[in-house]
Design goal:
Nuclear Transport Factor 2, Chain: A, 4 helices, alpha+beta, single chain, 2 domains, six-stranded mixed β-sheet
């Protein structure tokens, strides 16, 4: 990079930083543009606190208390489950069936909530999931081995039910713990 290009870049960055800091200061001192409480959903159906309580109840009931058969009661009829490389599923019965299958495969599953927060009609949860694989999981036959993986899940709620879930599970940890695949970076 030529000297004049470095000077121009530095000047641009300095100006952008000054504008950004000024805008941040104005925003921090400004009154909210609306009177909507942070606890009110964008759609006015449920408060953020109620949405968080629903997700916590779902995690406790279905996963920690191993009631896979209760999963359907937490989802809307047209629920969607987005699981990245594991696949996407639509419909309450299908989503509930997948979750019931996971609970059946890992009957002592425990989802330890590390963080949970919400905004509007969405709730984000960071978990550490543990349990013993006593049944087939993701097409992997039962191993009897202890599993532990990290997960970050985003839930969108509608009318007091989960309408969508984006599940981001550490699949490499699951594959490692089942003995299916060992990544070169895992000791």
């Amino acid at each position: 990079m030529k000297r004049w290009q470095r000077v121009a870049l530095a000047a641009t960055l300095s100006a952008a930083t000054a504008v950004g800091l000024t805008a941040a200061g104005v925003a921090a001192n400004a009154k909210p543009a609306t009177t909507q409480s942070p606890a009110t959903s964008f759609h006015g159906h449920q408060s953020v606190a109620a949405n968080i309580r629903l997700v916590e109840a779902f995690l406790r009931d279905v996963l920690d208390e191993h009631h896979g058969d209760h999963a359907a009661s937490y989802f809307t009829q047209d629920a969607q489950f987005h699981a990245g490389t594991v696949g996407n599923f639509s419909g309450r019965a299908t989503v509930a069936g997948v979750l019931a299958g996971i609970v059946a495969a890992v009957p002592d599953l425990h989802a330890d909530v590390q963080d949970i927060f919400g905004y509007g009609d969405e709730v984000v949860v960071r978990l550490v999931v543990t349990g013993t694989q006593d049944g087939p999981l993701l097409g992997i036959p039962a191993t009897g081995r202890h599993l532990q993986w990290d997960a970050t899940d985003l839930y969108r709620l509608q009318g007091g039910k989960i309408s969508q879930e984006w599940a981001s599970e550490d699949l490499t940890a699951i594959l490692n713990d089942t003995g299916t695949y060992k990544a070169p970076w895992i000791p």
